[in-house]
Amino acid sequence: MTGPAELLRDFVNTYDVEGDADELASPAELSVWLRERGLIGDDDRAADEDLAVATQLREGLRAALRGNHDGGPYEVPEGLDAALAGLPVRVTLSAGTPALEPVRSGVAGGLTRLAALIPAAHADGTWPRLKVCAESTCQWAFIDSSKNRSRSWCSMRVCGNRTKTRAYRARRQAEGTPRPS
Known about the structure:
By secondary structure, the protein is of the alpha+beta class. It has seven helices and six strands, in the order αββαααββααββα.
């Protein structure tokens, strides 16, 4: 079973910043994505408004995950706050177990279930480990599994190397040192 952080990561990664590819480019694609993860029923269909909320939620989450690099408190991105305000939940006690349940049904309910994973990830300790790549051209979401939670890039081989090479070249250029050929 996928945990809350994994599902949130997968949702943020439905848009590939570097390749400008969106898995949720239409309401139908949003419906399929939510259905495949058990967040909506077989008969639920997304509308344009649902897609707009999903996009706002996704990009708001991406912005919030940038704040997880610092480890301290940060302001909730405006877009995320607005998306969450439109996804009301209620607290239930089913068989004595507290849960957050969507107030609305259908796709809006599925997006609310997704948003309810934020406090679930916080409760299980994975929220602070959920980050986006510090490489500005990437922004891929990942779960930082390093012992001291210091990982900055989705991949040290690719994005970490790009960033470090760029910084090295900038230092060399600032020093006026000719680059080796």
